[in-house]
Each structure stands twice: as C-alpha cells, then as structure tokens.
Amino acid sequence: MQTLDFLTIIVFTLIVMIAGLSFGKQGGDMKSFFAAGGAVPWSISGLSLFMSFFSAGTFVVWGSIAYEWGLVAITIQMAMCISGFLIGAYLAARWKETGALTVAAYLTQRFGKKTQRYYTFIFLVLSLGYTGAFLYPVAKIVNVVTGFDIYYSILFLGAMIMIYTAVGGLWAVVVTDVLQFVILTAAVLIVLPLSLDKAGGVNQFIQDAPATFFHVFNGEYTPWFILAFIGYNTIFIGGNWAYVQRYTSVKDRTSAKKVGYLFGFLYLISPLIWMLPPMIYRVVNPELSGLETEGAYLRMCMDVLPVGMLGLMLGGMIFATASSVNTSLNLAAAVLTNDIYHAIFPDSDQVALMRVARIATLLFGLGTIGVAFMVPLAGGIVEVVLSIGAVTGGALYGPAIWGLFSRRQTGQSILVITGLSLLINLYFKFVSPWLFSFSLDRATEMLLGVFLPLVLLGAYEIFALKRNRESKQYQLYVNRKKPTAKELAASLTSGEIQNNFGIKVLGWAFVSIGTLLFLLGFGASAGRYYMFAMGALILMMGWTMVRSAQKRSDSHTKNKTEQYIHD
C-alpha cells in the first residue's frame, strides 16, 4: 500500500464516522435508538440486512472457501436467496405483526418472563461468540493489507465501531450499511475485469484452474450440506434477534415482506460477482495454505487495484464487515436495556434508559473485542462461524419462529426443546470426538443442528393437538393491549422525519464518496474509466437523494405551519 491508499482510508473513515455520529441528536427515546423510529424505508432496511449478513464473512470466510474449493462457494451463497424468499413470504410480516421492539420483548409477551430470561441469557452469551467472530475478519483485512498487528487492529476497530453505534443507534447502523453496499458494489465491478486480465482472460482462468474447481458441490460441501445450509439460514436470518430488527423497524407488513424479498434477490445475483476474485487468485497464486487462504480476497485486490482505489476498497471492506458487529452491538444493547434494565427499574425515564443503552453498547463491545482475540486459537474464522451456527442456530431461533404460528407451544415446551437440542449438538461437537473419537462431518452436523429442534417442536405440536391443548400464554398474547390507530399514526410521523434526515445524510455521504472516486480516477494507471463511471453514478445518486430529502422536509414544514395557523 502507498501513501495515497492510507489517505483514502482516512478520508473514507471520516465520512463513515461523520455519517454515523450525525444521528446522535436524532430522537432521544428507545424506539429511535433501537428501531430507527419504526418506519425505515424497506429498501434501506433490506440493504442493511444484506450487508449485515453478507459482510460477516464474504471477504474472509467465503473468500477462503472460494480459493480452496472454487465454484461451490457461489453455490453456498446462492442458496441463501431461497432463505430470503421464504422469509419474505412467511416470516417477516409475522414479526412486524408482533409490535415488539425486540425478540426478547416478543418472548415475554408470548411465553412469559421466565422464558424470556432464559433465552436472553443464552442469546447474550452466544452473541459474544458471533460478534467476536465477525470482528476478527475486519482486523484480518487490515492485517493482510497493511501488516499492522492483528490484535492492535481488533482493539482499534472495535473501539471505533462501538463509538458510532453507541452514539447513533440503529439509523447509524443502517446508513453505514447502505453506504458500504454502494461503494463495494462499485469497487468489485472494477476488481473483477482487472482480475481476469491478471489471470490472462476467462479462457486461461478456466484452463489453469484445478480439475474440480468448477464442480457445483465439492469436498465437504455436499448437496446435504447445501440443504442444511438453506434450512439453517432460513431460521438464522428469520429468527436472529439482530436481523429481526430489520423486519420490525419498517412501517407495515408489506414493507417487512419486501425486506426479505430484496435480501433474496441480492443473493440471487451477487455471489457470482463477489466470489470470482478469490477464485481467480487461486490461478494467479496457488501457494496459499491453512489460515493464509483467509487473505485470498485481499491479496487479489492488492495485485490489481490502482493506487488510491485499493485504500477505498479496503475501507469499504472494513466497514462492511464491521456492519455485522455494529448490528449485534445495537441489538445486544437493546436487550440489556429494554428487557433487563427496564424490567428491573420500570420507572426509569427516557434519559436514564438512553444512558444505559449507550453504556451497554460499550460494555458489550469490550466483550466482543475479547472474544475476537481468541478466534485464531479456535482454528480460524471458517471453523468458528460454521460451528457456532451448526450447534446453536436451530436450537436458539427455531422455537421463537415456531411460536409465531403455534397456539400450543408453551414457555416450558420451547425451553425444554432448546435445552435438549443444545445438549445433543454439543455432545456430538465436543464430547463424542473426545471420548469415542467419533465426530460428525460438516453436512451432518448442520443437518442435526437445524432439523433436530424442528422435529422436537413438531412432536410436541402433535402431542398437544391429540390432547386438544391450547397454551394459556397464547390466549394472553392474543388479548394483549395493542397500540391505537392514533398512536401508530404519531409513531409513523416521527419515523418519517427521521427517514428524511437519514436519506439526506446518506445522500451527502454518496456525494462525498462519488467525488473521492472521481478524483482517484485521474491518478489511476488501470481501470480509470471504470472509476470515472462509478464516481459519476454515485455522485448523481447522492445529489438526487439530497434534493429529494430537502423537498420532503420543506413540504413537511409547510404542512406543519398550515396546520398550526388553522388550529
């Protein structure tokens, strides 16, 4: 990396930080901080969901698989589009209907406080594992490209993410997510043709690739693994407490459905574009092995991107991968504040709750940094991400999703099923290999983790049906007090004001990024016209958003003035 690359990273970081911190004074209540006012545009929420999930491992986890195994990395990622479409069709609107701020609040309403406490404890412990695993790839990117010590990278990046998430809340998260989506899409469309040129063209790349490189299924990634992966992601994306925020923070059922459909559509078209650079790098440099393969994506970018553009790509990768971290931080703070602290101190006012929310974000962030330090000791990021998902995903999120549809499940039934599923999965993951030298392969491990809790939930459903049992907790949930039409209208009006501010911030951020990209094009030795085109496109998009937001703001002010005069 050269001086211009480092300067570009600094400028990009400042743009992202300013965008995130600008929401510090937008709304001073729980709904603003944890649900972005409850009326986020579905397109922004959908892109944020995509980036929160996409960025967790695209560059490191899936990049490593693409380098080692080839086309199967695209197969795995495309399978997630099926999960997105299923969630859009069946789950997203159900979550919106609950009216709950968090999944923990829904569990309290549907199954009681005891059940909610149990799941909250498990969720917070596992979230430290997930979030730490997501912070590690961010530091890995910095380590590979700059040579900066990975542990210092974890400390610096973790602190930076904590600050803007603690200040800006969910709007800071979703706006920075969308910003990463645009810049990384532009960047990869520049990387891809330059990578193919580096490999000698498409035909040369195909000719020099390993014999099994273009198999749809390869190695341990079998059809059974893909089937389990679809099931796992449907449950994980449809029930993970952090991702459920994306369905509940939009204005209505239809918008919630669109969030799921947009996620599915993006995973239908994006894997081919994103996974080709690390695949091509296998031909350019086939010498990587072990944990070195986690840096394949970055090494390809370092080889082909012009000066300055590498810094912009790296900045985009860092913050895109960090979006999974800030999403989890915001959600964990919501649970700690809304469902633990507020339950203990119900008379707390909004000022006290907001103070606790920001402190909770910082404390959970410190725990995340500690876990990220331990990822290399656990066998690398691929092993950590897939193992945690296989063991816990179905057991933790499946029962809550099932409860959205069931009249018969009780707090006791789902607690027993979650506990039993976790024990069986942990036995085969850790105890059986140690005592009997017997371990499950990747596909079987994930199949067991996904479908065991579903089988147990189905068995209880049949048991209760035959005895004509309906949960008393379900009746209480159905008859709960719901917001009035007037309260909903007031909430949507407040949300629209925040939306307008968010779109304006996003627009100015695009203008800044487009200008930066356009200027970098003048000094580029390769890909100059790609950079000019992308810069101009982002500039126009940003300016259009700023103008649109300003018109809506003026219209809202005019209507408010007329109403005041009329009254």
UniProtKB/TrEMBL annotation:
<keyword id="KW-1003">Cell membrane</keyword>
<comment type="similarity">
    <text>Belongs to the sodium:solute symporter (SSF) (TC 2.A.21) family.</text>
</comment>
<feature type="transmembrane region" description="Helical">
    <location>
        <begin position="118"/>
        <end position="138"/>
    </location>
</feature>
<feature type="transmembrane region" description="Helical">
    <location>
        <begin position="150"/>
        <end position="171"/>
    </location>
</feature>
<dbReference type="InterPro" id="IPR038377">
    <property type="entry name" value="Na/Glc_symporter_sf"/>
</dbReference>
<dbReference type="InterPro" id="IPR051163">
    <property type="entry name" value="Sodium:Solute_Symporter_SSF"/>
</dbReference>
<keyword id="KW-0406">Ion transport</keyword>
<keyword id="KW-0739">Sodium transport</keyword>
<feature type="transmembrane region" description="Helical">
    <location>
        <begin position="178"/>
        <end position="196"/>
    </location>
</feature>
<protein>
    <submittedName>
        <fullName>Na+:solute symporter</fullName>
    </submittedName>
</protein>
<feature type="transmembrane region" description="Helical">
    <location>
        <begin position="505"/>
        <end position="523"/>
    </location>
</feature>
<feature type="transmembrane region" description="Helical">
    <location>
        <begin position="359"/>
        <end position="378"/>
    </location>
</feature>
<keyword id="KW-0325">Glycoprotein</keyword>
<dbReference type="Pfam" id="PF00474">
    <property type="entry name" value="SSF"/>
</dbReference>
<keyword id="KW-0812">Transmembrane</keyword>
<keyword id="KW-0915">Sodium</keyword>
<dbReference type="InterPro" id="IPR001734">
    <property type="entry name" value="Na/solute_symporter"/>
</dbReference>
<keyword id="KW-0472">Membrane</keyword>
<feature type="transmembrane region" description="Helical">
    <location>
        <begin position="265"/>
        <end position="284"/>
    </location>
</feature>
<feature type="transmembrane region" description="Helical">
    <location>
        <begin position="224"/>
        <end position="244"/>
    </location>
</feature>
<feature type="transmembrane region" description="Helical">
    <location>
        <begin position="384"/>
        <end position="405"/>
    </location>
</feature>
<keyword id="KW-1133">Transmembrane helix</keyword>
<feature type="transmembrane region" description="Helical">
    <location>
        <begin position="529"/>
        <end position="546"/>
    </location>
</feature>
<dbReference type="InterPro" id="IPR018212">
    <property type="entry name" value="Na/solute_symporter_CS"/>
</dbReference>
<feature type="transmembrane region" description="Helical">
    <location>
        <begin position="447"/>
        <end position="465"/>
    </location>
</feature>
<feature type="transmembrane region" description="Helical">
    <location>
        <begin position="71"/>
        <end position="93"/>
    </location>
</feature>
<keyword id="KW-0813">Transport</keyword>
<feature type="transmembrane region" description="Helical">
    <location>
        <begin position="6"/>
        <end position="23"/>
    </location>
</feature>
<feature type="transmembrane region" description="Helical">
    <location>
        <begin position="414"/>
        <end position="435"/>
    </location>
</feature>
<feature type="transmembrane region" description="Helical">
    <location>
        <begin position="304"/>
        <end position="322"/>
    </location>
</feature>
